[in-house]
Amino acid sequence: MLQISQLASIMIKVLAFILLNMMALLPIQAQFINLQLSIDAELTATVEQPLDFGTQLTNSGRVEIGLGDVNMGIFSIRAYRTQNVYIELSYPPALRPSSPEISAQIPLDLDIAYNNSGTNNVDNAQPLTSESGFIAISENTQAATNSDIWKQLYIYVYGAIEVGNIPNGIYTGDIVLTVDFD
């Protein structure tokens, strides 16, 4: 004789079998959604023009590239207009020769300025008092339309080298512009 729990178990299995068979007879319609996402980076930095002191002669003295000179370094930063960035310029105190036999160095002194008006124009540039600073991407704080969500910030690097009585050669140094954003 079957117990009640065994009978209930058999009935559940039979009902499940009947429901599955009935569902197989029903026409099934599927819906598909074509979803495409476009994701932009929150910040991009581009070297628009490298800083270039060019070829210099021995004992040529102090060679300056001023703010607005054609050989100054220009960087652009594209970000949301409401973002702020922390910029830090780090560089060695002197350019070192590529040849290990040469011990002479060329002293290096750099400055940095920025323009957050959205145009690459040094007339609107503001110098940073040190090699680092916290800057708003856009000076315009009014409500944005869809066309002006992204803004450009321009960074200008300029300065001087002191070319003394040094051997001929290639003198280099790593200049690093670090950009952090919030």
Give a quick summary of the entry:
This protein has 182 residues and is mostly beta strands.
Summarize the biggest pleated sheet.
Answer: 8 strands, antiparallel
- H-E order: HEEEEEEEEEEE
The overall pLDDT, averaged over residues, is 82
What's the alpha carbon Rg, rounded to whole Å? 33 Å
Structural class: mainly beta
Number of strands: 11
Bulk shape: elongated
Share in β-strands: 35-45%
Model description:
Helix content is 12%, strand content 38%. It has one helix at residues 4-25; strands spanning 43-49, 61-65, 73-80, 84-90, 94-97, 106-115, 126-127, 132-136, 150-163, 171-172, 176-181. Strand 5 (94-97) and strand 6 (106-115) form a beta hairpin. The N and C termini lie far apart (75 Å).
Outline the secondary-structure elements:
Layout: H1 4-25, E1 43-49, E2 61-65, E3 73-80, E4 84-90, E5 94-97, E6 106-115, E7 126-127, E8 132-136, E9 150-163, E10 171-172, E11 176-181
Antiparallel strand pairs: 1-3, 2-9, 3-9, 4-8, 4-11, 5-6, 5-10, 6-7, 6-9
What keyword list fits this structure?
182 residues, elongated, mainly beta, 3-stranded antiparallel beta sheet, single chain, 11 strands, 8-stranded antiparallel beta sheet
